[in-house]
């Protein structure tokens, strides 16, 4: 098993896509990259903690290659916008990849180079060593599955799921 910690805007969006991905065994929403210990959602949303909303995606490489997990990441958010994804604005929504090993750092850097050709603007995704990861509150775990009718899910997450189905249908569960 391998775990990648990735930030691409609101963690609910990445969580929704990866929860439906074959070979993914766990998706945990959380916070990392900042200077405040044990932050909560309201602390992070203030923009004053330095933390990003992220997901820790654990997957079986025998089922889904790491490159596919990373390519999905770049397809599910706009990695060319600094500190924003759509209407979500602030450093907590930055595009980020947090590595634990040199091997992961290399995989992340290669994924940026591979995916740059899909974007007309430069990718601004930060690649930094993973500091402490703080699990988000229970309400944020598997959010889309619990609240699919909620407005944000309908307007923001559903189009991302449709895009995932269009480009990665063979890697998604029904």
Automatic annotation (TrEMBL):
Gene3D superfamilies: Peptide methionine sulphoxide reductase MsrA
EC number(s) on file: 1.8.4.11
Biological role stated in the UniProt entry: Has an important function as a repair enzyme for proteins that have been inactivated by oxidation. Catalyzes the reversible oxidation-reduction of methionine sulfoxide in proteins to methionine.
Any single Pfam family the record assigns to this protein: PMSR
Keywords from the UniProt entry: Oxidoreductase
Lineage: superkingdom: Bacteria
Family: Belongs to the MsrA Met sulfoxide reductase family.
HAMAP family in alphabetical order: MsrA
A single GO molecular function term of this UniProt record: peptide-methionine (S)-S-oxide reductase activity
Listed name of the protein: Peptide methionine sulfoxide reductase MsrA
Active-site residue list: 10
Reactions catalysed according to its record: L-methionyl-[protein] + [thioredoxin]-disulfide + H2O = L-methionyl-(S)-S-oxide-[protein] + [thioredoxin]-dithiol; [thioredoxin]-disulfide + L-methionine + H2O = L-methionine (S)-S-oxide + [thioredoxin]-dithiol
């Amino acid at each position: 098993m391998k775990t990648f910690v990735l930030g691409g805007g609101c963690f609910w969006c990445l969580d929704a896509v990866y929860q439906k991905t074959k070979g993914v065994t766990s998706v945990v929403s959380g916070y990392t990259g900042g200077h405040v210990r044990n932050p909560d959602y309201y602390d992070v949303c203030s923009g004053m903690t330095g933390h990003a909303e992220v997901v820790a995606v654990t997957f079986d490489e025998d089922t889904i290659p790491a490159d596919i997990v990373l390519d999905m990441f770049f397809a599910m958010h706009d990695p060319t916008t600094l500190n924003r994804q759509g209407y979500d604005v602030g450093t907590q929504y930055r595009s980020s990849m947090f590595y634990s090993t040199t091997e992961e750092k290399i995989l992340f850097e290669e994924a940026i180079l591979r995916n740059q050709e899909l974007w007309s603007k430069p990718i601004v995704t930060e690649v930094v060593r993973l500091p402490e990861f703080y699990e988000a509150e229970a309400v944020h775990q598997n959010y889309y599955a619990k609240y699919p009718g909620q407005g944000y899910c309908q307007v923001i997450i559903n189009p991302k799921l449709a895009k995932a189905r269009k480009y990665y249908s063979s890697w998604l569960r029904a």
